[in-house]
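Give me the fold.
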Amino acid sequence: MRVLVIACVVVVLESAAAAPASEPFKVNSTLDGKTVLPHRIHWIGSTTLAAAKVRRVDFVIDRKIAWTEAHPPYTFAESRGYLVTSWLKPGVHTFAVRVTTTDGRRAADLVRARVLPPAKVPPALAGTWQRKVADTSLAPTPGSSANPTSTLTPPGTYRITFDARWIHDEFPCTNSPCTYNASTGAGTEFDTDWVPGRKTFGVLGSVTTHTFKDSDRLAGWWCETWGPAATYTWSVSRNTLTLTPSGGSDACGIRGFIWAGRWKRVG
């Protein structure tokens, strides 16, 4: 069955009752004209309004704010970041870039487009695995090219879950119930964009689903929001998963430090 989806661009102006009349403005985005979205795409909003007159730019998916930017370029998931669609239910969704001005007016660019199902995860790889990293003293230095966003990796047991939507990481917890510890990195969670394969999988940057606070457990990403990209070879023998970065190293060194090695199945 074929599904016909009509993309549309809608500009809506809402003026506060007390706001003075001002020049009209338009909003556009890189999704304009698209009826089907790929697995990942740069979602960037633009407006004819001067940046000094923009209070905020919201990226809205199905009427829920998924990201907010205050400074150009107005990019979903920060500069060079991607909208990854694997976490969305297959079918038609509404994507809007909404600009709010300093004097309270609003305008929005609206696109309705279809999202495709994510790739299936090989059954042998799917599920949750854990690995104990007893010594993290040799992890790439925070702020270095191998760890540019200063991810902290405390010693302890790490968990990794391979899901069609993402690769989900859970760092060791040092308290119960588990919360994020900014001084050690304990309790951190990441969702990472990937494409599964029979013997290898490709990995890139983050899967961003909502705005977050720095204190949230699920916040941030390995290295940069956009990546860098890497390919991993995987193999399973009984209950042991072995991950090996192609070429011997991961361009995101801190990710490779935790991922590369043997994992035991736990779910």
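The two ends are 36 Å apart (CA to CA).
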